[in-house]
Every structure is written in C-alpha cells, then in structure tokens.
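Thread title: Can someone regenerate the structure for this chain?

I was given the following input by a collaborator and told the matching structure tokens would be attached. They weren't. Posting the sequence so someone can regenerate them.
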Amino acid sequence: MHAERDPPIKSTATSLDVVEAVHAMGGATLPEVVEQFEKPRSTVHDHLKTLTDAGYLVKDGREFRVSVRFLNLGGRARAQSELFQVAEAEVRQLASDTGEHANLMVEENGRGVFLYKVKGSQSVHLDTYEGMEVDLHTTAMGKAILSELPREKRDAIVEEHGLEPVTAETITDREELETELTEIRERGYAVDNEERVDGVRCVAAPITTENGVVGGVSVSAPKSRMNGQRFEEEIPSEVLSTANIIEVNLQHA
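Best answer:
Regenerated them for you:
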C-alpha cells in the first residue's frame, strides 16, 4: 500500500491561505505576502504565480490582488441556490415596501453569509455586501438562524468562532445569548439593536422547512427610523410575512 500523500493537500491549503492573505490586505506585493507566512520566498512566489496563471489572482505591476473570477463562482453558486431562486423576488418586495435595506442570509461553516441584499428608496449606506461573512451572534438574521439550530450545532459554532464583540452592544455572554434565542423562538423574530453597527437596528425572521432552518431574512435601518411602533410591530410584521411566503414557496418549489 502507498502512504497517503499529504503534501498536495497542504499545498492546496497554503494556496487558499495566500488568497485570503492577499484579500485581507486589499492587494499585496510578494514581500508583503512573504511576511504573512513562515515559508521561503520562493515557495510563496510559486503559489502566487500558480494562482495568477489560473486566474484567481491578478498581478498589477508589483501588486497581486484577488480576481473577480471569485464573483463568477459565487454568482453561479447563488443562482443555483433554491432558497435564492424562491426568495429573490420577495426580498426585493420587502425592500420596496419598507424603503429600507432587505437582506437574505444563510449559514455556512458556522458563519452568516449575506446571500442577497436590496436597497429600498430610503436606505442609507451600510458596509454589508453580498458574500460578506459575519459572526452569527452579531446580527438579527444570524441570531434568528441560531435560534432554530439544534443545541449541539449552536454549541459547536460558539466553540469554534466564539462570541467576539463588534460594538458595545454585541452579546458576548453564552447564557445571555441562549436566553435571547429562547425569546426569539417564542416571538418568531429577532432584533439587532446596534449589535454589529452603531446607530443601526435590524429585525429578522428565520426561514425554515421540514428539514430545519435554511436561512434568515431581515430589514435594516437607522435607529432614528427603526423605533417605537415601527420597530416593535410594523417591521416585524413585514419580515414575518416575507419569511412565511418564502417558506410556503419553498414547499412547492
């Protein structure tokens, strides 16, 4: 029998780490990437060249940057998602009805990924974008998803990713989070009260099927417009209605 060949797997992992490093730096030169790894300059150069030749990085002068090829891959993955196919029109309608940001999120590898985002007529600029990953405990959509996950999976996510604060309002205590998740299950929706972005509130509902939770949908707005009856009744009603329509349509997709 031949021994398992670990080097190719490790090499692939290194290439992915190089992509992540270049992305995190917003573009980087060879020396800058070398500083991120305990590997010879020649090894890092080989990974950069291979990734560039394959079209996953682009070299502009001395600087490497992530290629928009990833946009093509992500776009195709999203287009193939049954949830996106069913929810796209409903999220657009939610943005139109509320005038605010409407969002669709899924959980992948223990983190929340913005699958779709639509700006309403009154929406302000936010830092979120399609494909953006966030810790689930920091957003209303993430907490809505967490509330419907089995306890063992929630525990595994918290164990791996922790409960790091993003703002002064982020929940960082495990018991406090569990208490809130229970409340979310009881009322059917989650809120984010400046827990990821100062000055912004969000209302979200989980999207569930017979197989469990598949995502979350939300509305985000400045707290100056997301208060009183609008925050406590009107927006929750709109979000819950949208989630329900998506769930029904998923049953017949």
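Residues 34 and 42 are 9 Å apart (CA to CA).
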